[in-house]
Specification:
Strand content: under 5%
Helix content: 40-55%
CATH architecture of the largest domain: Orthogonal Bundle
Number of helices: 23
Radius of gyration: 24 Å
CATH class of the largest domain: Mainly Alpha
Order of helices and strands: EHEHHEHEHEHHHHHHHHHHHHHHHHHH
CATH superfamily of the largest domain: DNA Cyclobutane Dipyrimidine Photolyase, subunit A, domain 3
Structural class: mainly alpha
CATH topology of the largest domain: DNA Cyclobutane Dipyrimidine Photolyase, subunit A, domain 3
Strand order of the largest sheet: 1-2-3
Number of domains: 3
Mean pLDDT: 89
Distance between the termini: 38 Å
Shape: globular
Low-confidence stretches: 169-187
Length: 484
């Protein structure tokens, strides 16, 4: 059995490669596991992207007369039913740095497979290493893994098991009926809607980035209206495994070595640093997965102890009266995408200005991020919320950010049409309740007073960060996570 998870591709796939090497017939499958799909961090964005990815794989496999099976089952139930017909020798899969649901499932499966005398062979993913006590030699090991040859194979060598629909019914497996659609040879890059999943379109996005879109990477990376085209947009394709990190790194290295332009090299180097940054945070979460639920630095447990559901709901719906905040949230809800600077600003605004605990927004943001990756999601939320006690406390001013990153307010006016006729200088201006209401076409008043909220957040956060308790935990965090 080859169990597909966040690795939905048919190239550089170590579990498939190892299964072909083993020489036995292969049952290639994906399951929409009920425990996962019913969790609060799951959304239609994720399901549709996975669905697209499976369709893409199925089309390619059909060309080679191979089969992919898709279920809505727990893995334990699936294996029990398959064991009625087959002798299962091995299960190959990638390791997963997921949420607590997938972690608990893996603990159960380890015991279940051992009891069933099934070998479970897990392969590293994204250069993330299990069981590290510290990060002293992580950089060199990680870079070495990126330079290892890809796990290539010929799809004709993939000896998949073919089970008729009748036999599937006899096994009482609920097969998800996929209406397979043709993918056109020319893939249109459309940034205005939710990105389509699949290895085919992932490669098209990667090609378009390294063939020209990267030219304004540094210049536009922080600008919400321009980043959507100048940034790589590969995050969801990495998060759901349509591309391997090794494949993206190889494409970067080829382009970098071929370029003789210093400006191009600066843009490419900035992109490379974010590839490293990505795995750094996943590795951090793998080593300290309690971050999903607990402040990394417990000294911060004394703040943000009360939930204001009205503020939380207004934030989630993009109805705060702060133009750039609302535009960013509405864009996210519609497309599943917003650039990193705006994500950091949103987390900062929610935790510092609205003074709400980061855990109150974690699930909602996970649902609207098309590229949701638990290993990045939770460490980043805590970093922006200031609860690590290690990172600099950043309280983003949404009005300064809008003036700098969306100077003509094009992005804001696209997503907050109430401000379509509002003078640009007023869009960027901090206002109080009721002020200049004639110019704002019934746009909401700010739901909190920014200046007093900023002062309170700054005072309270620094008071905790300077405390002996916070400093004591800070050193432990640095000992575990500082890279070497």
């Amino acid at each position: 059995m080859v169990w597909l998870k966040r690795d939905l591709r048919l190239s550089d796939h170590e579990p498939i490669f190892r299964a072909i090497e083993a020489g036995l017939p292969i049952f290639l499958f994906y399951s929409f596991e009920p425990d996962i799909t019913m969790n609060a961090d799951w959304s239609d964005f994720h399901e549709h992207f996975i669905y697209d990815s499976l369709l893409d794989m199925e089309l390619r496999l059909r060309d080679h007369k191979k089969r992919l099976y898709v279920f809505e089952e727990t893995i334990e139930d699936l294996v029990v039913k398959l064991k009625q017909k087959f002798e299962i020798v091995n299960v190959f899969s990638h390791e997963e740095v997921g949420n607590s649901i997938s972690y608990d499932r893996d603990l159960r499966l380890k015991a279940f497979f051992e009891y069933s005398s099934i070998n479970w062979i897990e392969c590293e993913l994204n250069g993330v290493m299990r069981g590290l006590q510290n990060r002293k030699s992580w950089n060199s090991k990680f870079l070495a893994k990126l330079k290892v040859r890809e796990y290539d194979f010929n799809l004709n060598d993939l000896n998949t098991v073919n089970i008729s629909n009748f036999e599937m019914a006899q096994l009482m497996l609920e097969f998800k009926n996929l209406s397979f659609k043709q993918i056109k040879p020319f893939v249109k890059i459309d940034f205005s809607e939710v990105l389509q999943g699949g290895e085919t379109i992932a490669r098209a996005f990667m090609k378009s980035f390294f063939h020209g879109r990267f030219q304004n990477y540094n210049k536009h990376i922080s600008k919400p209206g321009l980043a959507e085209e100048s940034c790589s947009r590969l995050a969801p394709y990495l998060s759901w495994g349509n591309l391997s990190l090794k494949q993206v790194f190889s494409a970067y290295q080829y382009k970098y070595n071929a370029s003789e332009d210093s400006w191009e090299k600066r843009n490419l180097s900035a992109f490379k640093s974010r590839l490293f940054w990505r795995s750094h945070f996943i590795q951090k979460f793998e080593s300290e997965c309690e971050m999903e639920f607990m402040n990394q630095n417990p000294a911060f447990n004394c703040i943000r102890t009360e939930e204001n559901h009205e503020l939380i709901e207004s934030f989630e719906n993009g109805m705060t009266g702060f133009p750039l905040v609302d535009a960013s949230m509405r864009c996210l809800r519609a497309t599943g995408y917003i650039n990193f600077r705006m994500r950091a600003m949103l987390a900062s605004f929610f935790t510092h200005i609205l003074w709400q605990d980061w855990r109150c927004i974690a699930d909602h943001l996970a649902r609207v991020f098309l590229d949701y990756e638990p290993g990045i999601h939770y460490p980043q939320l805590q970093m922006q919320a200031g609860t690590t006690g290690v990172n600099t406390i950043r309280i983003y001013n949404p009005f300064l950010q809008s003036e700098r990153q969306d100077a003509e307010a094009k992005f804001i006016k696209k997503w907050v049409p109430e401000l379509q006729d509002t003078p640009v200088e007023l869009v960027h201006k901090l206002r109080k309740s009721g002020e200049q209401s004639l110019f704002f076409n019934n746009y909401l008043d700010p739901i909190v007073d920014y200046e007093s909220s900023y002062r309170k957040a700054k005072e309270d956060l620094w008071a905790v960060k300077k405390s002996p308790e916070a400093k004591s935990y800070k050193q432990k965090i640095l000992d575990m996570h500082v890279q070497g």
